[in-house]
Queue: 2 jobs
Job 1
Amino acid sequence: MEAKLKELKTLLIEIDDLKSAASLLHWDQATYMPSGGGSARSRQLATLERLAHEKFIDPAFGKILEDLRSYEESLPYDSDDASLLRVTRRKYEKAVKVPAAFMAQLYRHTASSYEVWTKARPANDFALVEPILEKTLDLSRQLADFFPGYKNIADPLIDYSDYGMKASTVLELFDKLREQLIPMVQRITSQSLADDSCLHKTFSEEKQKAFGLEVIQCFGFDFKRGRQDKTHHPFMTKFSLGDVRITTRYKENDLSEGLFSTMHESGHALYELGIPMDFEGLPLADGTSAGVHESQSRLWENLVGRSRSFWNFFYPKLQKTFSDQLGSVSLDTFYRAINKVERSLIRTDADEVTYNLHVMLRFNFELDLLEGRLPVRDLAEAWRERYKTDIGIAPPDDRDGILQDVHWFAGTIGGSFQGYTLGNILSVQFFESALNAHPEIPKEVEKGEFGTLHSWLKENIYQYGSKFTASELVERATGGPLSIDPYIRYLKKKYGELYKL
Amino acid sequence: MEAKLKELKTLLIEIDDLKSAASLLHWDQATYMPSGGGSARSRQLATLERLAHEKFIDPAFGKILEDLRSYEESLPYDSDDASLLRVTRRKYEKAVKVPAAFMAQLYRHTASSYEVWTKARPANDFALVEPILEKTLDLSRQLADFFPGYKNIADPLIDYSDYGMKASTVLELFDKLREQLIPMVQRITSQSLADDSCLHKTFSEEKQKAFGLEVIQCFGFDFKRGRQDKTHHPFMTKFSLGDVRITTRYKENDLSEGLFSTMHESGHALYELGIPMDFEGLPLADGTSAGVHESQSRLWENLVGRSRSFWNFFYPKLQKTFSDQLGSVSLDTFYRAINKVERSLIRTDADEVTYNLHVMLRFNFELDLLEGRLPVRDLAEAWRERYKTDIGIAPPDDRDGILQDVHWFAGTIGGSFQGYTLGNILSVQFFESALNAHPEIPKEVEKGEFGTLHSWLKENIYQYGSKFTASELVERATGGPLSIDPYIRYLKKKYGELYKL
């Protein structure tokens, strides 16, 4: 069994080497690659992804997994080896249902689709991506159809990112959430807008960067095992447990852009950096779901980074960094500015209260597209309409409309967005549990100390990698199932203090 | 045949995708990777190289090649398809002689060896790399022994980088060259040293970078298909014909460091950028040998970049960039400074006259090590001794002695260095031919125009990629075989004007 397990791990690590190489190719494409490298890069990415998939679905690999079944059953459920075998088997059984040739086609398509999107967005050219999205939709449906027996065609796609979730569960959850959010947004936006002009002066990129890096270093980001670079669409990526990178973007006339995206991505990175080195190269060395991953980014970005406790400590430092711009701006004004609630166009820039409205309409669009209720050619228009009804503001162009998010241009339609709202919900649920265990956390945050919070997250979330499913993890860490109650309580309390609710 | 050829190309491109991914992993390791990524990166590199090798030596691949033999024979020698088949077959026949498991071991070793070297060099710690070099030597010998029948154990290794060259040919050539160089170096270094203090003021890195980029843009470097980054050991690398990158390093107290390494690496890059796009992903899309590649870097660095014609145009610009430092320094003083000949320690910083002495002693060391005349444990000491006798100056430490070059720590011992001197020789031979064809070139260079020279190089060298062997290419481009005569003529003329010879 020892030898079999070793053989399995060797194969898994080899597959991970290919995937990690692909991740580096992606990262480079989004950070440093000259434009001339685009077409070959798409091809190279498709090759690496395909080879990794081929190796994973090799029947010889399945045989080893099968041989290890009785060994797995002899081990405690939460042991490393049992978990490795369980998670690997789950992924294997899913992977073998999809022919390698199809995956190769999908990888080729998404890699080149991304290249087209990088041109279409600045050019505000939906027509350029329309035929591509048609194909993406077609491939997404085909992918789902390799998993017959689903209730909703989105289910198998959601399963890739948020294992165990179903479209129906998500819809039900989102309905409950919307019921609470809509009146909250209405009540807030009927009041006078917060003044956030202090964030829209001119802030040198260099100083923004230095400040952001200082903050995430305090959070616990280890620059020996990671770095930050610039990109159009911020993301976190990992090439090994010793090399976890984040990207960000800065706007000289918007201080919040770089600052909060840096904190956000650092939250994703802390999760990966907290996974035990023993898991290196294995399927356990990953966050357990899109939702749980997002809960970590949102926890650091919002629960910490947009809290008054945090700025009690950091605002004087920020004022010192930008004395001309913020020297005479009070903490209270700044705090209101970074928590301004408004009807806006861009998901990633949206405030905590309206953010989920952006996500929920995208989730609905995915279902509408997959289920054939909405043809791709009507998508840009439908987007504008839906923004008008749901958010109360329509994008003047497609650049800041349908073209704003990379997801549908770099992956499937279906399963791409629900994790963002699940993450918001979970971020508060986890944070509340951490506070219950350690009521001193806010006091520490006021002193720029994050050790207790970071340790609680490591112990209750990070250290497990993807050993446990999202629902198992939530149960273990919070003592109950996923619930929107803490999230709603949090919003009501925080925004009740900022606005009349 | 059409279909077979297409199948062959598909396989070759897939192999190239793996190799290009490995190149990106290397580039990242040398530019941006945080230290924590080192050990996984070595593993990932070894995996990619091994998979590429395994795919290449697959008997099914050999079968396709064999099936295409009669097709190849029906085509003109210099047609693209015949050349592709010929070059691929040559590489294939070499590759199949080496077991995949051995290559995997070698890749693993060199990848981790590089990691150790990056620590050993700054720490001046030869002991740290000694056991590693022992193993490198052992593996290098084993590699050579997969090609029985060689006259010299270095021959199969030289063949990897300078196909067709033998240790005996190189030794004979180097002996002739040494005969000419030794008295030249003695005569020059017995005169008073040129004053190069103007290069050793303080030059901001940012301005150095901007100036260097302007120069190579004039050379013809296309920033849409390439970029420049910083590294410890400058190099050129390629991820596709649309993405050719160079790296450089700057010293604030040495203007020549960044400037000439930028021109040098751009010369390598221009070669690759001049290869026809039709060759993308195929074995033809490469320089034909280490020597010919180096001839291109040295041509732009030395024949152009250290010429008076070049600086007639660029020196006023450089003076404007660094007015405090160079405003009162005459062109003549500057020209003498950048062509200062002296006995020095670092190969990459050496002047044109002494440079080859650095290379030749390394080549001799490779033979001594491979043939067992020199044990690794004595290498650092032997290095110091040999520098004293050959160059006339002994390194005070190993950092600037045996540890200075990456080659033996990132590849085999054997075949690593001869290309540098072959390149110097060829750079002049090619340049002379270009001047014969276009005597107006120096006048154009004086106006900052490089189009005629660049076109001649594209037409006579770049466009062929690795279609022709080095000797075929030299014959075609210059009308004769490799010869040291143009090189010696060039040195005597240039340095005869600068020194009494």
Note: The interface with chain A takes residues 13-14, 17-18, 20-22, 24-25, 28, 32-41, 43-44, 47-48, 51, 222-227, 229, 239-243, 280-281 of chain B (CB under 8 Å).
Job 2
Amino acid sequence: MPQKVRIALDAMGGDVGASVVIPGAAVALARHPDCEFLLFGDQARIAPELEQHAALKAAARVIHTDVAVGNHEKPSQALRRGRKTSSMWLAIEAVKKGEADVAISAGNTGALVAMARFCLHMLEGIDRPALAAIWPTLHGECVVLDLGATIGADARHLVALAAMGSAMASARLHIARPKVGLLNIGTEQMKGHEEIREAGDMLRAMNLPQLDYIGFVEGDGIGKGAADVVVTEGFCGNVALKAAEGTARQVVEVLRGAIQNSLMARIGYLLARGAFQTLRNKMDPRKGNGSVLLGLNGIVVKSHGGTDAEGFASAVGVGYEMARYDLLTKINQTFNREGGALASVPAAQEAVS
Amino acid sequence: MPQKVRIALDAMGGDVGASVVIPGAAVALARHPDCEFLLFGDQARIAPELEQHAALKAAARVIHTDVAVGNHEKPSQALRRGRKTSSMWLAIEAVKKGEADVAISAGNTGALVAMARFCLHMLEGIDRPALAAIWPTLHGECVVLDLGATIGADARHLVALAAMGSAMASARLHIARPKVGLLNIGTEQMKGHEEIREAGDMLRAMNLPQLDYIGFVEGDGIGKGAADVVVTEGFCGNVALKAAEGTARQVVEVLRGAIQNSLMARIGYLLARGAFQTLRNKMDPRKGNGSVLLGLNGIVVKSHGGTDAEGFASAVGVGYEMARYDLLTKINQTFNREGGALASVPAAQEAVS
């Protein structure tokens, strides 16, 4: 990698586009001065935003395009209309051409997954992409995947998710051999779907040097920090993440409503606001913003569409870390060294014999 | 139903048994004086607890048994060892014999599901039991099922879950036609597994008088109160519930830790403690304790094993409501009136034509 981390941004992605993406990039640049940016999108909307951020302007190049992927376009439609022309495509293509180390978009998830797959292709030995997010735990963070890039998973795909997730965790958390758990409805070995038990048997039998398989983790184990990486198929991962995010918001909303109902409580809140700030810092969904699209020949990060500049800066930070700490090399090491093992994984019964 | 609601309790169930079950029953009796209790278990452990609760003692009869199902016994093992003899079995059997209107246990979930199924049998037209819980929302409560009585579901089973869940919601929430949503990873009709889309088509086509099908609900829609009943298969429901419970605890724990770190915040907490009490009242997992085992010829309620007397009282309250407001009649009405329709539901394509 060159000395600078080169970040390609879809400046049109998300609910509002440039007015969040550009200030977000500026915040990220202040945190990571060793970045430079390629900004893809409508010059007329990007330029005025850039005028507000001199440092970013100096570290960025704008590549104009009129075409933007709509938030409600179907993936097939987005590909037809936006291939080779849209800001989303061009950002991804910059990674493919070697002009950027990572592409980041807050746009339409389905379109992003489809375009990234189409443009970058899958890594050898990996069939399907996965979306992985950073989840706050009581003691720090963990990586959870898949969050819905695809749904359903056989044992082999779960094992691939475990390997990719641990590469991401080691880039993010700087752990050499992350603890990996499979999400299940109980921790006993007899629990859950056949494919999960089989994946557990395979991971135990393979005993990979890149990850430490610790067994099954239940839904409440994620936030407890039971593992550094929690693996599940995309449907369940998506539901779990949204249920948890919804609950965190709900708790805060109930508390806020109750505080506003009483003068005494409002005074109490003022005195305790440092504690509430700590809560926000630890549980702020904006801090976990930035899911990594794994399994591709290149790094792509998806930001929430509805986030603000602070949230978008977090997503840029995730992209920066994945590029700086060699996510792809880490994944390739696992799949090259263990490629044979991962590709021709024996059936569970053989694996545990 | 006779004037009193007759409740059979497995006094040995849960992490500690009688010392939670008996005080919990006493709290529930104070709330619902029109109850009477059959207490199954070890007389030597029940009697001293009962001595502390005169009103309960007057409203209860103890039926002694030495046998209790262990928390870690496999269902098959529990059935072999505890059928006809264990406190869990005898409580369920009291419902079968018509001596009680509802059975409640804080014991081993797998054993409870297996024994209830074996003893009471499934209702006609329903293949598999389901566990349904009450989930706090921003505006009140909703019913979520299945939480893991079984895993996986085809479209027909999802439709049966919708019908049973809405009967439970109408008994709990006193709504004539509860709003029912299917849990999915997006609200667009093209999203998710085939069987979920098919179940949605079927529910729309059937247009049952007992429920108002509103479409797909995402993970964060549950706590927002998007529907009165949220339907999913057992694996995903179990993971979502535990992820949400874990997150609620995590938020409170982070906040508590932050408050304790600062004197000012501790003073603030004292002033705002009414607001924290409101939060506890609304989000207290003990208040939602008591999952209903649906689909059987009789009402069985499962309490968390690790709950306290207050939590066990909530589970008794759920059982009371289900018996008092005729859960079984409501389910049977749906399945008798729509029995043909539910049993011979046409394929989705036909249903929506």
Note: The domain at 1-120 of chain A is CATH 3.40.718.10 (Isopropylmalate Dehydrogenase).
